[in-house]
Specification:
Blueprint: E1 19-22, E2 28-33, H1 39-47, H2 51-58, H3 67-74, E3 81-88, E4 91-101, E5 114-121, H4 130-144, E6 149-154, H5 159-166, E7 171-177, E8 180-186, H6 191-213, E9 217-221, H7 230-241, E10 246-250, E11 260-261, E12 264-267, E13 279-282, H8 289-298, E14 303-306, H9 316-331, E15 335-337, E16 343-346, E17 353-356, E18 364-371, H10 374-386, E19 391-396, H11 405-414, E20 420-425, H12 431-442, E21 447-451, H13 472-481, E22 485-487, H14 490-502, E23 510-515, H15 518-530, E24 534-535, E25 539-540, H16 547-559, E26 565-570, E27 573-574, E28 580-581, H17 585-598, E29 604-608, H18 614-618, E30 705-706, H19 709-729, H20 738-741, H21 745-756, E31 765-766, H22 769-777, E32 786-788, H23 792-802, E33 806-810, E34 824-828, H24 831-845, H25 848-851, E35 853-857, E36 863-872, E37 876-883, H26 886-891, E38 894-898, H27 903-911, H28 930-946, E39 950-960, E40 965-967, E41 970-974
Parallel strand pairs: 5-6, 9-10, 9-13, 10-12, 13-14, 14-15, 18-19, 18-20, 20-21, 21-22, 23-24, 23-25, 23-26, 26-29, 29-30
Antiparallel strand pairs: 1-2, 2-3, 3-4, 4-5, 6-8, 7-8, 11-12, 16-17, 16-19, 27-28, 31-41, 32-35, 33-34, 33-35, 36-37, 36-39, 37-38, 39-40, 39-41
Length: about 1000
């Protein structure tokens, strides 16, 4: 929408206020500023509002808007008078406006910082969260225009509107004046308002995916008249899966007399269908997709799966077609999976949906799968099927123009049928949001991720998202911080998913190994050591071991309180004639299942080498027990803390496992896992409480089988690390209170404003040494002073001022922190030594004007480290730590955490580098002051979190001594703060 000449030329139409949002029921709508072109829409909207709603808005009967009203409500200056509308299909369904007022409640201009606000929502759309979404966006607009408070008058009987204000989470005051409720809202975001906003976002986005995965009816648009083709294939798969809803075939080329196709009603358009269609699968050429989308939108379709190709994967022209497709669909309130998608699957018994190109619907299970690649999706479905694993849901998003991995996490977090979420991602549209959602989801169920296109530096074709500049190793570290299980291949993802979906979480890294092959046991032992586990010496049952021997040994290992997990290795038996006998795998599988069922709940994995029938038997279902829920206290809270892994206690213990188990009465017949009786499910708490982790199964569920020791061990190691993260996440870290007492946030803010100036360069500016020292000092980070030494006499004078011993250092960019090149001379104890060092450095490296030498007093001896903080446009603020020097840089031995960091994050950060033993007394050296180092990390984290203008900080070196530390060098760069979309009002991304 463009402004008309009647609008103030000083305030152009603010198109950045436009946003697509997901409403409470999962439908989408568009929020945008109201313009003078909206007069007819406003009148039409008002005519559809009930008399009661009009009365609540105007405090009197108000049947129609006068011309003056229409002019007033459509003419805004976008500063003191602002109106926003929510639209679906181009028509208004709700409006909000504010007018800036002074202390007397009269119209005013800036600097007045209060505004009167009023809402009106069409009755047919009340209860969908329209007013709540409008309040978020109008509050953000008001803050942008310098308004700090909203005032509202509400009739006492208007409970819905009072609830909107009350539940928003803002600080507010309420009074009763002249027969109405007077509300004042402080618009500064609070922890509560942000939590409310994110809670609404979670429920809305989860519901939007649920509507796609559980439709009551499906229309396949583009169904071919003859067998074959994409549309006809999807229709066939829908029918083969036994979809419980209604199915329609749609093709404008159908003969008028064609009534059915493959036994389902056939129609030339959606308009011919007498009832509402919930989901449309579009399989027509790209140039016909807009027509199909319009037909869907005009007939109330809720969501689309677009299989058609020819979009962003074809280049810039295709990308623009893709963006237009999203705009068109969202204008009708529909969400899209695709384009260029492979399809979706929901195995729930009440749905049985296979709206995909997968010829066979997977068995019902507890794993949710999201992939951005159709080819990878096919491979994963095939691999899981071969291993006997079932799925709860599957989404192949193709170009991922709308529904993304973040939406899938929102859905998986709530879905009671999903215990483990597997995601293959090639790009992250909103890494900050992904990390936040992954952390919350991982607290109740495992999230396993494979990230493709890790080293290309660009996004895959079709994925128009911000490109992160941070290395892949940093991305991996940040995922780990959020509890994500990051693996390198889809095979590893399946391996980890099978273990996590069927077994309890281990209580620790102690692993028992038993089997009938000494060599295979030793391979498993070595693999455990390589993965950081603590294996016990392998127990060799010899090649003569019987299935009963396996059962006895496994039962003994499970009962042993000194082990947390068991890996069973098995090779074929050798007969009397010396030939290998594949043996009866079913007998061995039954023995292992029996031992697992009779012992404490600990994870068990099997490594087998060509034992006929074993994999098939391990896949056999044996449980028909209904899921059990965790007991709750009288207050309705879980009896046990979420996230604590199982231990060696009897199976009746209340410590929870991670994911629960497969669904009851799982379909049998594929290879790889087994299920035992007593499986536990998950429950969804009422209201807005977050889901709790599933109760541990009374006995382990499906036992995963692996063809190689390394794969089984790697999966177990991932489960161990995830279980440790879950234990720690149950009691999150804190930001120490001393930071509030020893930091000068207002002083730092004022200094930053002064340094940036009134018209800052968007590229930012580096700070001088003294400026950096002053800013860091505001947060309790002292930097040892340096004095310039442009000539020997200045160097001597500087040393006399600082006191001997001193260091002479070059600060030229090409020599900074390069002691190996001779640009640093230490422990200069007197004037003669300083003069000799100065002469040697200038003779070796160049003139003083080129070297920019400085003099600095010596610091106590210790370990040289590097501490950095930087802001990445896609990932956010990142805190990094490593040892100083070329070896750490060459080996990439640097650890990372997201900002803001807690005390636990800081402690983990310095302990997670490979060279960490150097800090703790390696080879008899004195341990250094790691608490001082942790405090420094926390102070730097607080600085960049409080002041987003600080876009990069490097403290190098930081010398950590046995007592205290010294920051010898600091570089700081300031720039106008980058936008923080994750802190603004809810909005769908535009790719």
């Amino acid at each position: 929408m463009e402004p008309t000449p009647e609008q103030s030329p000083h305030h152009a139409y603010p198109d950045h206020w436009e946003a697509d949002v997901v409403l409470r029921d999962g439908g989408t709508a568009r929020i945008r500023p109201i313009t003078t072109d909206d007069a007819e829409r406003l009148v039409s909207f008002y005519e559809q509002v009930s008399d009661e709603s009009k009365y609540y808005r105007f405090f009197a009967p108000y049947p129609r808007l006068s011309d003056r009203d229409v002019h007033r409500f459509t003419h805004h200056d976008y500063v003191d008078r602002v109106g926003l509308a929510v639209t679906i299909g181009g028509e208004f369904i709700g409006t909000v406006r504010f007018d800036r007022i002074n202390e007397q409640g009269r119209p005013a201009s800036a600097p007045a910082d209060e505004a009167e606000v009023a809402f009106l929502v069409q009755d047919a759309h009340q209860g969908r969260g329209v007013a709540s979404a409008l309040l978020e966006h109008i509050a953000a607009v008001a803050r942008e225009r310098g308004i700090r408070r909203f005032a509202a008058e509400v009739l006492p009987a208007n409970n819905k509107m009072i609830k909107v204000f009350r539940d928003a989470g803002y600080t507010q005051q309420r009074s009763f004046e002249d027969g109405s409720v007077h509300l004042t809202l402080d618009l500064e975001p609070t922890e509560k308002s942000l939590a409310v906003q994110r809670g609404r976002e979670q429920r809305a986005e989860a519901r939007s995916v649920q509507r796609l995965l559980a439709p009551g009816s499906v229309a396949v648009i583009g169904t071919g008249r003859t067998p074959g083709g994409v549309g006809r294939t999807v229709l066939r798969n829908l029918l083969a899966a036994g979809f419980t809803g209604r199915t329609y075939a749609v093709n404008r080329a159908f003969d008028e007399g064609l009534a059915t196709l493959d036994g389902v009603p056939a129609h030339r358009s959606l308009g011919e269908i007498d009832e509402q269609v919930d989901l449309a699968v579009i399989a027509v050429p790209a140039h016909r997709v807009p027509e199909a989308v319009a037909d869907c939108g005009e007939h109330g379709v809720q969501g689309l799966v677009v299989l058609s190709a020819g979009y962003a994967e074809r280049g810039s022209a295709g990308r623009e077609l893709q963006r237009e497709l999203v705009r068109q669909a969202r204008s009708y309130g529909m969400r899209i999976i695709g384009p260029n998608a492979f399809g979706i699957i929901n195995t729930a018994e009440s749905v049985r949906l296979n709206a995909s190109l997968a010829p066979e619907s997977p068995a019902r299970g507890r794993i949710g799968l999201f992939t951005q690649s159709g080819a990878i999706g096919i491979a994963l479905l095939s691999g899981l099927h071969r291993r006997g694993a079932g799925l709860s849901s599957f989404i192949s998003a193709g170009n991922r123009a709308d529904v993304s991995g973040n939406d899938f996490l929102q859905y998986s977090f709530e879905d009671q049928d999903t215990d483990v979420a597997l995601l293959y991602l090639e790009s992250l549209g909103n890494p900050r949001k992904f990390t936040r959602l992954a952390r919350r989801t991982a607290a109740v169920k495992p999230v396993v991720v494979v990230k493709g296109a890790r080293h290309s530096g660009t996004n895959p074709p079709g994925h128009a998202v911000p490109v992160s500049r941070i290395p892949d190793a940093t991305v991996s570290a940040l995922m780990r911080q959020a509890g994500v299980i990051r693996v390198d291949t889809v095979t590893e993802m399946v391996d980890a998913g099978l273990l996590l979906a069927g077994q309890p979480l281990p209580a620790g890294p102690r692993v028992a190994i038993l089997g009938n092959s000494e060599s295979l046991g030793l391979l498993t032992y070595d693999a455990c050591l390589a993965e950081g586990l603590r294996p016990r010496p392998p127990r060799d049952l010899t090649t003569a071991a019987s299935p009963q021997d396996f059962r006895d040994a496994l039962a003994e290992a499970l009962a042993d309180g000194t082990c947390d997990a068991v890996i069973v290795t098995a090779i074929p038996w050798v007969g009397e004639n010396g030939e290998a006998e594949t043996g009866d795998g079913e007998v061995l599988a039954a023995a292992l299942r029996g031992a697992a069922a009779g012992g404490p709940a600990k994870p068990v994995a099997v490594v087998h080498v060509e034992i006929g029938g074993l994999a098939e038997a391990l896949a056999a279902a044996s449980s028909t027990a209904a899921p059990r829920t965790r007991p709750t206290t009288l207050a309705g809270r879980p009896a046990a803390a979420p996230g604590a892994p199982t231990g060696a206690a009897p199976a009746t213990a209340t410590a929870p496992t991670g994911p629960g188990t497969e669904a009851p009465a799982e379909t049998a017949g594929a290879a790889g896992t087994t299920e035992t009786a007593g499986a536990a499910g998950t429950t969804e708490p009422a209201g807005t409480a977050e889901p709790e982790a599933a109760e541990p199964p009374a006995r382990p569920g499906r036992i995963p089988a692996y063809p190689a020791a390394e794969r089984a061990v790697r999966a177990m190691a991932e489960a161990v690390k995830y279980a440790q993260w879950r234990r720690q996440a149950a009691t999150p870290g804190k930001v120490p209170e001393f930071l509030d007492e020893t930091t000068d946030e207002p002083g730092a803010a004022a200094l930053i404003d002064t340094l940036l100036g009134t018209a800052p360069d968007p590229r930012g500016r580096p700070l001088t040494h003294d400026e950096a020292r002053e800013l860091l000092g505001r947060y309790g980070i002292p930097v040892r002073p340096t004095l310039p030494a442009p000539d020997p006499e200045a160097a001597v004078a500087a040393a006399a001022r600082l006191g001997y011993p001193v260091a002479l250092k070059t600060t030229a960019p090409h020599l900074r922190h390069r002691a190996d090149l001779g640009g640093v001379r230490l422990d200069l104890t007197d004037e003669d030594a300083l003069r000799r060092a100065y002469a040697e450095v200038t003779e070796l490296l160049g003139k003083p004007a080129e070297l920019l030498p400085v003099v600095q007093s010596m610091a106590p001896r210790g370990v040289d480290t590097v501490v950095r903080a930087s802001i990445d446009a896609a990932a956010g603020a990142v805190l990094s730590f490593g040892l100083a020097g070329a070896p750490s840089e060459l080996l990439g031995d640097t650890a990372h955490r997201l900002v803001p960091a807690t005390d636990r994050d800081a402690a983990e950060l310095i302990r997670s580098i490979k060279a960490a033993p150097v800090l703790f007394g390696w080879r008899g050296s004195a341990p250094v002051d790691t608490p001082a180092l942790e405090e420094l990390l926390l102070r730097l984290s607080r600085l960049v979190d409080d002041h987003p203008e600080v876009v990069s900080v490097a403290l190098e070196p930081v010398v950590v001594a046995p007592q205290g530390l010294t920051v010898l060098g600091a570089t700081v760069r300031l720039a106008p703060p980058p936008p923080r979309g994750d802190l603004g009002p809810r909005r769908l991304p535009n790719y």
